[in-house]
Automatic annotation (TrEMBL):
This is ComF family protein. Transmembrane segments: none annotated. SUPFAM superfamilies: PRTase-like. It comes from the Bacteria. InterPro entries: ComF/GntX_DNA_util-trans, PRTase-like.
């Protein structure tokens, strides 16, 4: 039977690679290549939900990348937040480079997890990865910080098993910016929605809607926010970045 000290040791020195299971590695070189071996790319789900910002992803959600994300999110392999956060930082940089404009502080806004999911897992995966990504961006010379200003305003059903239309309906109006959050964002910087995974894009589209609504309420839209976005939606536009996205979303030819 495992003792508590063995569980603690696995958090610091994992028993196996989070991607392929190779002994004593956070992520082995082969799995790191799967995660970060290619340049992050712009991705788009089909169908694309209204209001979805331009999204960049580090890797397709398959094989070892899928295993690593699930190990971090569902099995509490917290040490994986390191490489996953570095991969997310790369996707953020790709989006900022394509957005143009002068260099400015980067504000990473993680998509919120349901409170019951956070309690069940014992941590908030997107928030933890966003913190690591902000640290990585600062280390590389980009001023960045994480602002967890989004929250659920009502309960939503479990998304697993729902199709894209059902997910949009399930999340419609479900998120809001916490009191004072819009003012923090309006202080300046380039705002990027971040998450560990994008499948249908419904969560990011709802998060973007909530941020746009908050900026309209305060009547003070930062120039860096207003100048970024994708083909859908009106008003304030945002960019987004994720660690992984569904493989089909990588197949869109943007050239």
């Amino acid at each position: 039977m495992r003792g508590w000290w063995q569980d603690l040791t696995d958090l610091v020195l994992p028993a196996e690679c989070g991607g392929c299971g190779r002994a004593r590695a956070v992520l082995c070189p082969a799995c790191l290549t799967r995660l970060m071996g290619a340049a992050p790319r712009r991705v788009r789900p089909v169908p694309e939900p209204p209001g979805l910002p331009v999204v960049h992803a580090a890797a397709p959600y398959e094989d070892e990348v899928r295993a690593a994300l699930l190990a971090h999110k569902e099995r509490g392999a917290l040490v994986l937040a390191g490489p996953l956060g570095v991969a997310l930082a790369g996707a953020v940089r790709a989006g900022l480079a394509s957005g143009g404009g002068p260099g400015a502080p980067v504000l990473l806004v993680p998509a919120p997890s349901a409170r019951r999911a956070v309690r069940a897992r014992g941590h908030d995966p997107a928030r933890r990865i966003a913190l690591t990504a902000a640290s990585e961006l600062r280390r590389a010379g980009t001023p960045a910080r994480m602002l967890a200003v989004l929250r659920q305003r009502r309960a939503v059903a479990d998304q697993s098993g729902l199709n894209s239309r059902q997910r949009l309906d399930n999340l419609a109006g479900a998120l809001e910016v916490a009191a004072g959050g819009a003012r923090l964002l309006a202080e300046g910087g380039r705002t990027v929605l971040v998450d560990d995974l994008m499948t249908t894009g419904a969560s990011l589209a709802e998060a973007a809607r909530a941020l746009r609504a908050a900026f309209e309420d305060v009547g003070d839209v930062p120039q860096a926010v207003a100048g970024m976005g994708g083909p859908n939606g009106t008003g304030v536009m945002l960019s987004a970045a994720v660690v992984a996205a569904s493989p089909s979303s990588f197949e869109i030819n943007w050239n």
